[in-house]
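Morning F.,

Quick status update on the modeling queue. The single chain you submitted on Monday has been processed. Sequence for confirmation:
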Amino acid sequence: MKMAANLKLLSLLIPCAFLVPVLITMAPDLKEAWNSEALQNMKTVFIGIFLEAAPFLLMGVLLSSLMQWFVSEEMVRKLTPKNPIGGVLVAGLLGIIFPICECGMIPVVRRLMHKGMPAYIAVTFILSGPVVNPIVFTATLLAFPSHPEITIARMGLAFAVAASIGMLVYVFVRRNPLRMPKVAVTEVKTHLGFKMAQSHAHANAHDHNHVKNWRSFFIHAGDEFVDMSKYLVIGALITACIQTFISRSDLISLGNGPVASYVFMMGFAYVLSLCSTSDAFVASAFSHTFALGPLVSFLVLGPMLDFKSTLMLLSTFRTRFVIGLSLAIITLVFAGSWLINLLV
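Structure tokens below.
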């Protein structure tokens, strides 16, 4: 059914693809606007963001597909620590073993939650994995060779924020935050318990009888990639527009002040939507403009919460959960980076 919907959408987009060159040929003004310097910059930024994130998204969906076929629910239950504190600590350090960017993290975690991973462990892994890993650690050291305290502060604050939010989810979130399929929602609303149980039984039987071969593996990975990449494309496009048509000098002028500098750098990280493996080199350009605290807030918030990852989170989790998660991330990153700046 999903493949049929994608093909239907593709059939609607194909005429648009042929319509664009016709409009450019017939309208000189439109052609001039298309070739303007600002639009060329926007296209360059968009392609850069997408190409930077796409390999990590592909890595994530391939890992997700491997988990779909080769990791059972029983295995996930056995490997999940029973103690919530131990589970949060282990999840906070999983990025060392699975160094995946935030773009590829969400499909992996969604698959693990479907297999039975608790929400508080999954959220901790989503938030810490893109930062607390050897690739990001090395990139941050290279970006700030004379300031190792920035790297240490980034790793420490990211782990602390992720672990704190994981415990908050464990204490306050009592229902599964994953979005329910539309079919399941309809069945719940109609209160037809028998039909719903019948549907689940049919789905489970289908999973057990499905042949696990490489062809089905790549089909699943392709479906997952198409499902997540559309949010990446929308997020990258809007981010490219903001970066192109709003000058950095205007943005920096908003960051003059003890609190405004944190707000600016965190908002800048959200808007830029950079990959966690490269954002340290962007932050190094502001090392002579901002203090340690605002720089750390930029380096920690961006991998945890940016525009494209927000769209992916909304496609995976309930809206209310994503809003609460976003507010918790912003509050803890601000408080933690302000405290680091005060102490260091």
